[in-house]
Amino acid sequence: MPSERRLWKIVFDNFLKSLQPKLKEKPIGIDAQGNKYFELEADPQGGRRLPRRWFVPVDEESGVPTPEWSQWLRGRRDEPPTQEEIAHNEAIANMKKINAENIAQKFRLPGSTNETECQQNSKGFPDMSEKFEIQPGNLKSKIK
């Protein structure tokens, strides 16, 4: 019978805890898309060792957080990203795109066609079957 008394004590303690005021969420920031980010501080006495973090998207379909904000949401970083950091990372990404395009143009063969001109197969990949041998020595169309 002592376990029943203890059960009622647990129920009563939980009832008293439910009457205590809830912690208020703290707004952390807004990204370039307009998504809003929030955090509830960690409460070790209440059983929550880590802070609870979430975001409210502006649009349900396109509301995807940036990589920096995703790291903060998942707890991989303690501090939220700054606007300067996001702008710096964007500049690096744009520079890599430009460099990749320059390298592609530099090594493009004079008679080659763009990949966008190729037909796509049923899985969405370019169909290159006419340009390569299926079996060695049996090239369907001789490309010179």
Tag the structure with descriptive keywords:
144 residues, alpha+beta, 3-stranded antiparallel β-sheet, 3 helices, elongated, NADH dehydrogenase [ubiquinone] 1 alpha subcomplex subunit 12, NDUFA12, ComplexI_NDUFA12
| Average of pLDDT | 82
Whole-number radius of gyration?
29 Å
Contiguous helical run count? 3
Instruction: List the uncertain runs.
Output: none
Strand fraction equals 5-15%
Largest sheet: 3 strands, antiparallel
Summarize the amount of helix as a percent range: 25-40%
Distance between the termini: 92 Å
Structure description:
By secondary structure, this protein is an alpha+beta fold. The chain contains three helices and three strands; from the N terminus they run αβββαα. The longest helix is centred in the middle third of the chain and has 24 residues, at 83-106. The radius of gyration is 29 Å and the shape is elongated. The N and C termini lie far apart (92 Å).
Short description:
InterPro entries: ComplexI_NDUFA12, NDUFA12. The protein has helices at residues 2-19, 67-73, 83-106; strands at 26-30, 36-40, 52-56.
Fold topology:
Layout: H1 2-19, E1 26-30, E2 36-40, E3 52-56, H2 67-73, H3 83-106
Antiparallel strand pairs: 1-2, 2-3
